[in-house]
Design goal:
The chain is 53% helix and 9% strand. By secondary structure, it is α/β, with parallel strands linked by helices. It has one domain (2-136): Rossmann fold, CATH 3.40.50.1010. The chain has a five-stranded parallel beta sheet with strand order 3-2-1-4-5. Helix 5 packs across helix 6. The two termini are 17 Å apart.
């Protein structure tokens, strides 16, 4: 039903992020919740570049436990996602990872939830902000 990408995970991971509490609510309240597989690669590149300062491997262990605890499904990567990403970059000028997250959501028939409003320009994509996702899907709580 709902696919989150890297910006929601980053907000979830840092209690200093202005969207942290909202990201926590998304993870707690929206079901089923899925994660773009390309988020893992994007996070790793952010760590490698020094733009994201975390303790490795504790960060990865914590992410794995969070995904497992909340039942967040990691979508399997597919060449179709990459093909779609190329098309979206050409048509909309998206960044590499934004194009992969959008393509994944489209191919998997999921609503993409992100703080990045660049997705709102993609006609073929079902996109919503985290705030709207909580209003629309937030009542589907985990028992």
């Amino acid at each position: 039903m709902v696919l989150i990408e890297t910006d929601v995970v980053l907000a979830l991971a840092s209690n200093r992020d202005k969207h942290h509490n909202e990201a926590v609510e998304i993870v707690k309240r929206i079901r089923p919740l899925k994660l773009s597989p390309y988020t893992l690669i994007e996070l790793d590149l952010l760590i490698l570049s020094g733009k994201l300062k975390v303790r490795v491997p504790m960060f990865h262990e914590g992410l794995n436990k969070t995904l497992s605890y909340y039942g967040i499904e990691l979508i399997r990567p597919s060449p179709k996602h990459l093909e779609g990403g190329w098309e979206l970059r050409e048509k909309y000028g998206l960044t590499y990872f934004d194009s992969l997250h959008a393509s994944t959501a489209m191919i998997e028939k999921e609503v993409l939830v992100s703080y990045d409003r660049a997705y709102s320009n993609i006609e073929e994509l079902k996109y919503t902000t985290p705030q709207e996702a909580l209003k629309q899907y937030g009542s589907i709580a985990k028992s």
